[in-house]
Amino acid sequence: MSRRTQSPIADTLIAWFADAARPLPWRAADVSPWAVLVSEFMLQQTQVARVIPRWEAWIERWPTPAALAAAPPSEAVRAWDRLGYPRRALWLHRAASEIVERHGGEVPRDLDALLALQGVGPYTARAIAAFAFGLRHPVVDTNTRRVLARAAAGQGEQGPPSTARDLASMEELLPDDPSSARIVNAATMELGATVCVARAPRCDACPIADACAWRRAGYPPYEGARRTVQARFAGSDRQVRGLVMQELRAAHRPIGRVELTPVCADAAQLDRAIAGLLADGLLVGDASGYRLPER
Fold first, then answer.
1. Position 134 in a domain
2. What is the CATH number of the domain that holds 286?
3. β partners of residue 291
4. What is the pTM of this model?
């Protein structure tokens, strides 16, 4: 099979990334696949600046899957603190146990084996395979999709995701060489996170501005389908869930329903939040009250 000609955009991104890459701790050459996996769990829907200190503390405390698996799930939830979407802490703890049970404590390289781990979806599996093991897989997050939409499709916004379309676009951009492909995956994400941002993109600082279809077309307004906007956080059930979790993380004993009353003036909303947390396995309830899961 003949090799494809490498895209000039890929070459430009590789050269740009050498100087522009943020020194994120999970990008260091000596980090373990486990440390990369933890970063991918934490970065789901959470800003990098919030993740860095939590990731550093987590890796110091639990440097291997076996170390986390040996701890009770309640400690994982407490250590997760206020990163948000705390089910990820439970999923990460379960994934660590599965890595110990199925893979001798070593994070697997194979996509199917990664996908079989708790909490690892298609994006996370490809990201771990690419960034922890240097395998050639297209990795597409929100930032990548925005760059592809503008530079390749000439659209100002990325619109609703399409896995098949997005992966095909990134696959076309990736060099054949796995090490170069890994850099292009990371560089495209970095470009979307720091330059080709959602509002007020810094086109004057963009290394691929001359190749950008959206720029060449004169920045036409986006007229396609739009993503669903998430309901605001303040006053939502999500906020109340977070407040309940805050109380339970701080306590090292069961807390009764009456003690949780000050968390939310709306009793029905509080009960709804508690019921959701119980259903998600983030709380355990019995006659003594509610507590974090211990196993």
1. no
2. 1.10.10
3. 284
4. 0.87
Q: Alpha-carbon distance 22 to 14, whole Å?
A: 14
C-alpha span between 199 and 235 (Å, rounded): 26
Is residue 266 in a domain? yes
Q: Average pLDDT, stretch 280-290?
A: 89
Q: Which of 48, 34, 80, 45 is nearest to 186 (CA)?
A: 48
Domain assignment of residue 241, given as a range: 237-291
Q: Running DSSP on this structure, what letter comes out for residue 182?
A: H
Active-site annotation, residues = 40
| 192 to 21, 33, 187, 195, 273: CA distances (angstroms) | 12, 24, 9, 6, 35
> CA 147, 149, 150, 155: dihedral to nearest 10 degrees?
-160
pLDDT tens per residue, range 18-49: 999 999 999 999 999 999 999 999 999 899 99
Q: Which residues pair with 255 in a beta bridge?
A: 290
In this structure, the strands spanning 289-291 and 284-286 are antiparallel
Tokens of 231: 């309901």
Total domain count for the chain? 1
Tokens 């084996």 -> residue: 113
DSSP designation for 283 = -
> Which residues contact residue 192 at a Cβ distance below 8 angstroms, ignoring those fewer than 6 apart?
141, 142, 143, 144, 145, 146, 147
State the burial class of residue 50 (Cβ atoms within 10 Å of its Cβ: 0-12, 13-18, 19+): middle
CA distance 244 to 249: 9
